[in-house]
Amino acid sequence: MKRKNKPSKSIIILALVLEITTLISCGKVEQTLPDENKGNIDYRSGFETPVTIRIPVYERGFEGWDATDNYYTDWIQTEFGDKHNIKIEFVAINRTTQVYDYMQLMASGKAPDIIFHYDMPQMIAYYSEGSLQQLDWEEIARYAPTYWTNIGEVIQTYGDVENDHYFFFAERPDAYNSVTVIRKDWLDAVGKKMPASLEELNEALAAWKEAGLGNGGGCIQQNAFIFDYPFRSLEMSEEEHALYSDLSIAPFTWQPAHDYLKNLNYQYNHYLIDREFYLNTDDLATQADFVSGAAGIYSFHMSDNTTVFRNLLENNPTAEVAYLPLKAMTPAGNAPHSREYWPFGLIMGLRYSTTDEERAAIWMYLEWMSQPENLYYLQNGVEGENYTMNELGHAIRNSDYNGKYRLSNNSNKDYWCLVTESVQYGDSELNDQVNPNNLASKEYEQIITDSYQDFCDNEKYRKPDVMFQVVISAVAEYKSELNEKWKELYVRCVMASEEEFESVYEAASIEYLEAGYQKILDEKQAAIDAGKGLN
After folding, report:
1. CA distance 373 to 394
2. What are the tens digits of pLDDT across the range 332-352?
3. Is 233 exposed, middle or buried (CB count within 10 Å of its CB: 0-12, 13-18, 19+)?
4. I need a labelling partner for 47 at 20 to 30 A (CA). Which of 159, 175, 254, 387 fits?
């Protein structure tokens, strides 16, 4: 098995990100069939001597939950590991500091066998540092035929880097549990209806301020740059989208970014958002403002056992919340654009030093988890404890359950996300029937229902980022500096006086371009001109 060379010591300062090297393919890729005669040793029946695999799991700080040691990690060991002479060690990766965590683990030689991320450019960065090994698709298909049937076509379409195989993926069915909620009782208190545009939202925020209720919250936008979508023009060209739309680099000098910052500047100067927004650098900080009653708007990934609403009611017993539609954050005259996900969930690679036996064990693990009965148990728990079956045979969650078989606060997703991004029930109609219960506690099912309707209504305005067919090397060189520069200039522009905003933004744009963004734009433009950058 061919591998990259062992990474250099520079891995401890890994902050490089290169652009994805695979252009979205429009055609169907022929499936690679497993070769039963490949290799001299077949481990599918188990290993003669114990094999240890190290599996990453996100640590999200759920109260009372140990991500690496709980009922379900024990169950996985018993049901899969012990039956194949495999020891599974779960390695905690902090969700908000995951790149740093991986850097430290790689530098110490303790990285898990699977290296994963939701951002393809970051996975390219791991590849570029020599942290990943080359993969054999036939080997995956042989050891994990169910997994390969589910996702093999996507792997063959998007899994190459410079014509070699490096990435494998989880499935990504449609999901709509990433929501923004608003204090409906505050809207009622000031006589405002649900906002239907950004202008109406600002009017509601102003009314909140006058009534002494609170503000719209606020935070530092970082890591995943999707803030500008509602400000994109209907006339945006494919080339413009390819040039500027980038999950890993903020498009500071683009007109939609200007318009976004100008609105924030207005909100800041009129006391409509948190005046100390720059201190909110993670979800815990913004959530704390919302549940305490200081802020009336909050965005998060919703699940049936989320503690957000319970904590809100403990502090504000009469609080009512509702789904805030995309159009409420969109300027009048614009369409509610949003980012469409690429057709895969987690992006994964294998650590450069993972052995042949460990690699086979990992494919066997993905195959075991892809079996419907195992996936169902991980996602739902124990019948009669975590859930009951309704008359249609759907698992109806008991969101108040807190016993031995308790799921994590995101329904154990951090284990089964290796094979799929969301719970599925056979077809889209069944999913839509069951999801309000499975993605929200009983009192808040309407939020998921409204989110689903918004998702359907605005389908034509969703658009994925462009995948470049060539490496954009300037991204690797300047990403780290630009991400820090973005935060500095972002705060400078928002906190400027309204009269000075344009001059401050213009100077900041020049500074951002000179810090490396112009080189990124030039390199992307060259790729686009060569036909290497449009979908």
Report:
1. 14
2. 999 999 998 888 999 999 999
3. middle
4. 159
Q: Which of 418, 363, 429 is nearest to 392 (CA)?
A: 429
Q: In the chain, what's the furthest Cα-to-Cα distance?
A: 76
394, 426 Cβ separation under 8 angstroms: no
Q: Is the pLDDT score of 36 beyond 80?
A: no
User: H or E stretch including 457?
Assistant: helix 445-457
Angstrom distance (rounded) from CA 96 to CA 107: 19
Convert the pLDDT of each residue in 500-528 to its tens digit.
999 999 999 999 999 999 999 999 999 99
Looking up tokens 């305490």 gives 292
Tokens of 438: 């499975």
Pairing mode, strands 395-397 and 387-389: antiparallel
What is the Cα 7 distance to its own chain's centre? 27
What is the distance in angstroms between the CA of the first residue and the CA of the last residue of the chain? 33
**Contact in structure between 309 and 443 (CB atoms under 8 Å):** yes
Tell me the DSSP string of 162-219.
TTEE--EE-B------EEEEEEHHHHHHTT-PPPSSHHHHHHHHHHHHHHT--B----
What pTM did the predictor assign?
0.73
State the amino acid at position 328 in one-letter form. Answer: A
CA 281 to each of CA 179, 285, 481: distance values in angstroms, whole numbers, following the listed order: 19, 7, 18
Query: φ, ψ for residue 104 (rounded to 5)?
Result: -65, -40
CA distance 75 to 296: 41
Cα dihedral sign for 247, 249, 250, 252?
Answer: negative
Quick: pLDDT tens for 430-459: 666 666 666 677 788 899 899 989 999 999
- Calpha distance 164→286 (Å, rounded): 42
434 closest CA partner among 397, 480, 474: 397
Identity of the residue numbered 469: Q
- Would you say the C-alpha torsion 101, 102, 105, 111 has a positive or negative sign? positive
Name the β-bridge partners of 54: 89
Confidence at residue 253, expressed as pLDDT on a 0 to 100 scale: 98
Q: Is 155 helix (H, G, I), strand (E, B) or coil?
A: helix
- The C-alpha atoms of residue 422 and residue 430 are separated, in whole angstroms, by 13
Alpha helical stretches, state H, 215-302? 238-244, 255-269, 283-292
Residue 295: beta bridge partners? 215
**Do the beta carbons of residue 336 and residue 180 sit within 8 Å?**
no
CA dist 320 and 351 (Å) reads 47
Contact status, residue 294 vs residue 316, Cβ threshold 8 Å? no
